[in-house]
Every structure is written in structure tokens, then in C-alpha cells.
Amino acid sequence: MNRRARFLEVLGVSEEWVPRHAPALPQDGVAEPDVAADVAANLAAEPVAAAVAAPPEAPAVAAGDAAMAPPSVRDRAGPEAAPRPPAEIRPEIRPEIRPEARTEPRTEAPPALALALAPAPAPAQPAMPASAGSREAVIAGLDWAGLEARVSGCTDCGLCDRRTQTVFGVGDRQAEWMLVGEAPGENEDKQGEPFVGVAGKLLDNMLAAVGLARGRNVFIANVLKCRPPGNRNPEPDEVAQCEPYLRRQIALVQPRLIVVLGRFAAQSLLRTTTPIGKLRGSVHSYEGIPVVVTYHPAYLLRTLSDKARAWEDLCLAREVHARAGAKA
Ligand code: URA
What we know:
328 residues
């Protein structure tokens, strides 16, 4: 079986994929540019620099972002978005799979990347009020045990009233890869672990496709640690209260790369209102750590055509990770 076939099999969508030159069907009357082919070509020619320097021009932003909008995003994958046959991904850009978990705690900061990072987006949120400073400072000083205890007992926003439990995050606490999602859904609220529903299964398959696995050199967390009732959109004050937890998790893990899953998490972490279609395809930075943005797995379950783009994003992430001096 060739590499492409294996990738499709891993994602469990082999029957959904067709050659790039198959005629594209209109989706909701909107013709999408073949960004996948362009980025794949750029990646193949100049792996990272091209992807960094050339974010896609007007990709499927409208369709993608509308479909990404929570609450539909969290494990409400359904057939409502008619899939368009996707572009074929060049198999030769698939990186080698050489998983190797780091065993020693990292003491140094990730090495500087020889990358032109995407320009820092303008902050979309106001600066934190001064009164919040001491809370943030306390959280910023917690170790893993203290942070976990603080999160599990958190009552700093209204989400605590209706949660079953908090969802702290899961995985290797010395991971080189950190994945950041939006917020727990119903299954996560019940089980206390991120991405355990249908979208989580796809996420596991996506990780496997690049030689990673939950808990093996990967840490997975969400922007919010509590489930918004009915999977509604997180409110700004909920994000503001929860953000220091994620910030501290990132500081403790010290990942070499952050992969952000979906519009909400991307816009929260990068403090921007830029649509996800424009955020993906470039390398951003969070506190000096490279950030690659991709689609949320629940969105991908509904929009099969964008799996090709998600694959490009994972390839970009692999490139960035490799250039960050990583072992695996
Ligand atoms: N969606 C998310 O963003 N996070 C989860 O943990 C589950 C679904």
C-alpha cells in the first residue's frame, strides 16, 4: 500500500478521497479555490518557508468559518455540510514517522527557528484589568499539582455550576507537541479528558498519521476547562478566567510546537479575529513558541473536503517541529 493510501486508511476516509483532477462540485453554491494544491506544491518545493511566506489567498474562509462556529464544532459532526471532493495531497510531502518521546525534562527554551513568522496579529481583546493581575500571578507560579488542584476546584466563572467535572488536559507533560482545542463537550465533561468523543477519534487518527499518539510526546488541552452548557460559544469572561490556566500549562510543558485546533482556540490563543482560513498555512508565535493552526476535528467530520488542508497543516507542523531541533 502506498503512503497516500495508508494515510487515507488511517483517517478512515479512503472512499471519500478522489484525485485532484476530478471535477469539483459546488458547495452551497460557493466555488472554493484549490488552496490545498497550492500549499502542497509550496510545501513540496520549499517545505516551511513557502508555507510561512505564502498564506493562502482567500481560501474557503466563508464556508469554513461559518461551519467552524461553535457550538456546532464540539462533537456535533453531522451531514449538514455537503462534502466536495477534496484535492489530492502529494504523498511525497508526508514526513517520515519517527516517534520518539523525550525522556529528559527540557531546560532550554526551544531554539530559534529559521522561519519568517507570520506577523503578530493585533490584540482583539482588551488588556486584563489590574485586579486580575494577582490571580494571574498566583496561577503563573503554580506547579503541576497546584495547577491541577486549582483548576479542579475553580469557581471563578459560571461554568462551574453546570459542569460534571473540569477537564484539565491529558498527555506527556514534557511533550514537544501541544495541541489546544476549544472546550470540553458532553463526553469530555463526563470522562474528564479532552477529545474523547467522535472528534477525538479523528484527532487520534490525525496524530497517528504523523507518527504521534495521545500521551506520547503530545499534551492535549483546551482553552476552557469546563463545558459550556449545550456546547454554546464560550463567553469572553469565561475565556479570560480560564486563559491563565492554559498559559501556565504551556509554560510548564514548554512544547516545541503548539497546534491549535479550530477557529475559537486559534483566535483566543493568538488574540486575533482573523478567520481560520487565513490563520492556517502560516507559522505564528505564542510566547516565542511556534504555532500552527488547523481545523477542528469536529469540523473536519462535517467537511470532508477540508481534510486535505488539515493534512497540509500537519505536514507544516512536522516541518516546524523538525526545524525546532526536535528529536522526533
Ligand atoms: N472539542 C474540543 O475543542 N475539545 C474537546 O476536548 C472536545 C471537543
